[in-house]
Design brief:
Elements: H1 6-17, H2 20-44, H3 47-66, H4 70-97, H5 100-125, H6 130-139
Helix pairs in contact: 2-3, 2-5, 3-4, 4-5, 5-6
Length: 142
């Protein structure tokens, strides 16, 4: 893949240099951004953009689910997997039924999880937080 714009190059550098916890936060940010855009498109009756944005959010959620280390992550990973599956199903239904409320509920769930992962990401950068950091890397093998 050829990166042509300075923004693309910047984005690639952000991903290449990010910690696993930061990558998870970036995925949450992307999903939340696409859900906001999807909600707006849904409210404006732009079904093509709505579908595009909600499918992009679903793909990010699928990526989050596929990066879970189910063996090392134990119950926490299992609970996250259940949440990701629920969110994915809700977005499929929201897209079919043009249901902004379902999108909003998933968005709120992702925002809550994003905040938790942002705290983990901060702890990863702190030298005294190695227990939290290694635990985070166990959950998502990003």
């Amino acid at each position: 893949m050829t990166l042509t714009s300075p923004y693309d190059v910047y984005q690639r550098a952000q991903v290449d240099t990010a910690s696993p916890a930061k990558l998870v936060v970036m995925l949450y940010d992307g999903a939340i951004r696409f859900l906001k855009q999807g909600q707006t498109a849904m409210q404006q009756g732009n079904r093509e953009k709505q579908n595009h944005c909600l499918v992009r959010a679903q793909r990010i959620i699928t990526e989050l689910a596929s990066s879970l280390d189910m063996e090392a992550g134990g119950d926490i990973a299992a609970n996250l997997m259940a949440l990701y599956q629920f969110m994915h199903e809700q977005l499929v239904l929201a897209n079919l039924q043009d249901d902004v409320d379902k999108v909003q509920k998933v968005r709120e769930m992702l925002e809550s999880l994003r905040e938790a992962w942002a705290q983990v990401e901060i702890a990863v950068r702190e030298p005294s937080s190695t227990v939290v950091a290694s635990g985070a890397e166990v959950l998502h093998a990003a």
